Amino acid sequence: MAFLYTEVPFMAKHIDFNFWAKVPNWLLAHRVAVSVLTFVSPLIVSSISNQTLAQTPNSERVDQLIQGLSNEDLLEQLNIVTALGNVNDREFSSETLDKLKLALVNPDWRVRSGAALVLSQKGGLLVKDALPTLVKTLQDPNWFVRSSAARAIGNIVAEDTGDSNGANTVIEAAKFSSYLVDALQDSDFSVRFSAATSLVKLNTKSAFIVSRLISNLSNTNDPQTRLVTAENLNNISTEVTPILPNLGRALKHGEPSVRALALETIGSISTDTSATLPYLIQGLQDPDWTVRSKAARAVVRIVTNLQEKSRANFFTASDLNAIDELQTIQQILQNPQNHFYNNEKAGVSLAINALQAASRNR
User: Fold this and answer.
1) What is the pTM of this model?
2) If you average pLDDT over every residue of the chain, what do you get?
């Protein structure tokens, strides 16, 4: 009996941020300068922090550093962030994480942003428990705090290596991608930039994990391996599909780059073919060519994987139920006024034929 599993389209790598063109040059330069500082903070190490606090017990050192986040000097604040981020994993206790979570709700915006930057620098499973607080911080009244929180969410989820098979990581990426897509509509462009950067990181991680699972399923003859992999993919589909409508709301955003990124996000996390295609159909009919192009790239990935599954005799009910959507996509692609490429058209036809043959043989 053939195993059935679900599919995921792979996201395109290039994203256009057209909204930057609308930002005054002087404001853009200021915000980019601040954003750059958040990137280079790990390279700036305060000699005062290192020398004065090196012999201080860890608990006291953390307390002093967190208090120092209220420093009005931005460079010194980043030095303190770096010192906190450099606390080795063995000493970075749950108590330290609790103190940083409290710092995220400190009345001083500098302390809140500093705590978010520390969590961003640590990343991964070690600080995963801070994610719910960081999500709330996306609503902070200060733009720099919101931007730091968006960056931290991306780093923590993308660098989480605690899941050996990757299924839970994809589910987490889907969950937090939803919040980051909402942050793309923030009134401040630097917050949108941080959210977009994190989304790209999460999408790349999700696409890699799902493609690895599919590859494992298609290239092994071991029944147990196939079963485990199929179960992992099914688990991803079950948990991720209910999140899609929340992401789909971004397809109504007035900025084309947001709609394009939403499509890529949906494509990179969804393993349910029939649930994903309606959003891609919407994207293929978008008035902006760049958005339509993103949707078309995702379609190509889907149909390519469907053909691979056909050769391996691995189809899901979701795949077979997607024939109607694929036929709709075929009509859209074949309309000469839409100017889609021949490879995009041909792949859909082959996938439809494979699915129809599989349906007849069930």
Assistant:
1) 0.76
2) 78
